[in-house]
Description:
Radius of gyration: 22 Å
Number of domains: 2
Low-confidence stretches: none
Number of strands: 14
Strand order of the largest sheet: 10-11-1-12-13-2-14
CATH superfamily of the largest domain: Alkaline Phosphatase, subunit A
CATH class of the largest domain: Alpha Beta
Oligomer: single chain
Shape: globular
Amino acid sequence: MGDTVDAMKILLVVCDGMADRPAETLKGMTPLEAAEVPNMDKLAREGQTGLMDVIAPGIVPGSDTAHLALLGYDPRAVYTGRGPFEAAGEGVEVRKGDVAFRCNFSTVDKGMNVTDRRAGRISKGTRELAAALNGMKIEDIQVIFREGVDHRAVLVLRGPGLSPKVTEVDPHHEGKVLVSIALAPEAEKTARILNEFTRKSHEILGKHPVNLARAKEGKAPANIALARGSGSPPEVPSFSEHHNGLNGAAIVGISLVRGLCRLSGLEVPDVKGATGSTDTDVKAKAKAAVAALKTHDFVLLHYKATDLYGHDGDAQGKSTFIERIDSALGDIIGSLDNTIVCITADHSTPCSVKDHASDPVPLLIWGKGLRSDRTDCFSELEAASGGLGHIRGHELMGMLTGLAGRNPKFGA
């Protein structure tokens, strides 16, 4: 059905963690409600809105499982851990038998207590730090380590007898670095290797010139690499195969979503200025999405910074960034011909919580010739009364391909 003459194209805009709760600093409004978003509001008035439980009601989505659902996969069937997606996003090959982890460059004191999980939001010098850890050998296991965006990095362990069934060393908050424990007998070697890597990373990074310079400048040193999200390579059906030959691309800056898209067979072009952080070139990404739609049936346009502001508890910053997204969309909407536009979030990251929450996210679908409802603007509250009703994340792609005229008839 991908070559149907009258079929429409699909642009899925995911504002990571955009959904929120009322904030005192915004006079009781959510960041989306407080934002001036004339373009999203116009699409909402002309299209339909609704709410979406990205995984299921009451389930707090991870960014990885959420994006699997948004791309039409069942996370419970294909998810094997976040590490392989992060690794693939940074261009690291993950082979059968490897175990991959996502990592943070973090700061610990002399007692191995974490004092800053993000090492002062380090953004410079991480390539040199990663190079100091990459290539080490622990027993008969090769260590592959690559820097990501800001404080993020990926770790791949390669060699015989490994298993992803281990606990994390990252405590996820200030406190003692954890000791990895095997969750199954076959994982005892992996836990031992991971604990030794953690020890060696502290030993090596603590003496690194990048961190000695940071200490002189009064900055938190990135003196340890803390791993979490272990996983083995997932067996993900190709996006095209999964969606009746749909040809797709993704415009994304962060390694997790980039890797997930690559592993599902989406083309992921490099976009200058797409950093995956608050300094990303919002408009360059929107223009890249328009360019990708010329050669692809489906394009995912992903913005990460809304989630970062949520984790930092910065409601005003989040609202302002939503306005930047809206401005970028305003620049491109007029150039989209025969295209369905869907705007949503992968999960809620309330500024009051500073973490993901189970709250449903607002959903907007617009396209020329499609139905409209009585929605007046785009917000969490307004979407609750929209014509799309209340759906689950894995249902979204089927809705979009159906509206685009790309689904085969079921039955005679």
